[in-house]
Amino acid sequence: MAAQLPFPSEVGYLMPEENGTTTYLVPAPFSEAADLVRSVLRRAKLQITGELNISGHLSKSLLIRTAPCVILLASCSTDQSEAAAPTLSDAVFMPLHVVIASRGSVTEIHILKELPPVSSDRSQNDVLDGLKRAIREAIEEIGMRASLLG
Amino acid sequence: MIATTGEGQRYLLPVRFEKALKLLRSALTEMEVEVIQDLDAAKVLGAPLAVSTRARILLVDSPILLLEAIALDRASAVFLPLHILVADNGQETAISVGNAASAHNVRLPAGASGPISRLQSRIALALEGLSQQIARKNCLLGGE
């Protein structure tokens, strides 16, 4: 007969931390997928405040070639920001990174997972949660969650 | 002055904004930390900060640490480059180093934890060195 193991909480184990990112797959090559991501973010009225070409940066600095990878820096639209005054804590995390990485004929999109509140300050949570939700909803228009595809 | 908050580390340097930015960039360079993007916080947030008229968000990394972090999983780039917020506070400048992973107590993608922690240590050393340098200078100017 199998021994019954105690629940982790009964023996004082810490529950494993949650994965901090969510990955989506877009069935399109890199540059096409990158255009799609830019377009859905704009349609969701999000600001793309910058782009970081990570593979280009590594190639220039270290002379190492890696598969194409860019980070879109996404933040709230002016309307959304006006609804809740930005605080120092908002600014530390913003803009959020939307990572677009080539994986052969498909493209991976990585974003920060929607997680429990960072602080008890309601306005901060509103701004950050709203931004994370808007990014997720926009990406879900074009991509399939990788965890669902196994 | 250094304070650890839920979002990361905060420093208060007793120098004006423009000078603090210049000193910070030079201290980061000495620690081989690159500023790869410098953003106007008001533009990113859509409005000026509630507590400060001027603020910049510096996106910083070290290419070798970035490569190490994304080698196994490019999801690591969700957390890198790290963000440093520099905010005008009159005679002083507030500097915050963001850490989304520790603020949310989340598991980082495979291979990201070591490089991120080493990058944070370099930034902390740069800022602590800068604080001491300013304190020593102020001491000498004050004739103490």
Report on this structure:
The complex is a heterodimer of chains A (150) and B (144). Chain A is of the alpha+beta class and 150 residues long. Chain A contains six helices and seven strands; from the N terminus they run E-E-H-E-H-E-H-H-E-E-H-E-H. In chain A, helix 1 crosses helix 5 (122-140). The two termini of chain A are 33 Å apart. The model of chain A is unreliable at 8-16 (pLDDT under 50). With 144 residues, chain B is an alpha+beta fold. Chain B contains five helices and seven strands. Chain B has helices at residues 17-30, 41-45, 63-72, 100-104, 113-141, and strands spanning 2-5, 8-13, 34-40, 55-61, 82-89, 92-98, 106-107. In chain B, strands 1-2-6-5-4-3 form a six-stranded antiparallel beta sheet. Chain B is globular and about 50 Å long. Chain B starts with a strand and ends with a helix. Strand 1 (18-19) of chain A pairs parallel with strand 7 of chain B, so a sheet runs across the interface.
Task: Give a summary of the structure in a few sentences.
The complex is a heterodimer of chains A (150) and B (144). By secondary structure, chain A is of the alpha+beta class. Chain A is built from six helices and seven strands.
